[in-house]
Structure prediction request, 233 residues.
Amino acid sequence: MGSIVIAFFLSPYLVRTLGDTGYGVWSIIASLTAYMSLLDLGVTSAVAKYVSEYRAKKENKSANEILASAVALLLCVAVALVAVSPLIASFISRTYDFDDSYTPIVSTLIVIAAIDMALYILSGVLIGAVTGLQRYDVLNIIRILIALLKAILFYILLTKGYGLVGMASAALVTNVLAAIIMYVFIRRKHKEMSFGFQHAKFATSKKIVAFSKFTFIKAFNNIKITLYHGNKD
Prediction:
């Protein structure tokens, strides 16, 4: 709820400051990152399910296998996303008829957004772990604080004239900060939990994929509906 309120007050400022074209470019990048987030492949929900289940059974070894295997899976996805980001930037630039002055900016934004989403995808393991620990209070506090910090940075950077690239960089930095906070929380409060690759197992990865495909389909449908109504409006 807090994030929604922040976005409600921030949006008019972004429209006024960026202008129609600039805000339109930002909206395109936001829609693109929404689709990029699907590359989580439902792994976050699988981590939440199995961490909760194994910790209830006091099977910490199995929980760590889930965490490590999920990191291995999503690391491959994250690296692939960053690697193809220049191609995505080229495709978007050719598809949309941007002003010549915006073409290099759009390409830079897409690469930054891809790096941001790669880190976000990896942080899905942390989100799943905190969710599996039933610490929704921690997640909500982090999300509200990060949304507030992001809004403040947007305001400062736009006031200083850093524009869209500054906003994208701020989004990247704040998402990294959120991941660091979640990791520190898990390691301090639950030292028995480990993300080390030595715990990763192929059989465990298959178990994660078997469960995550259902939540992936649901997430894909939700994003399609959200973007459809957004474009319709």
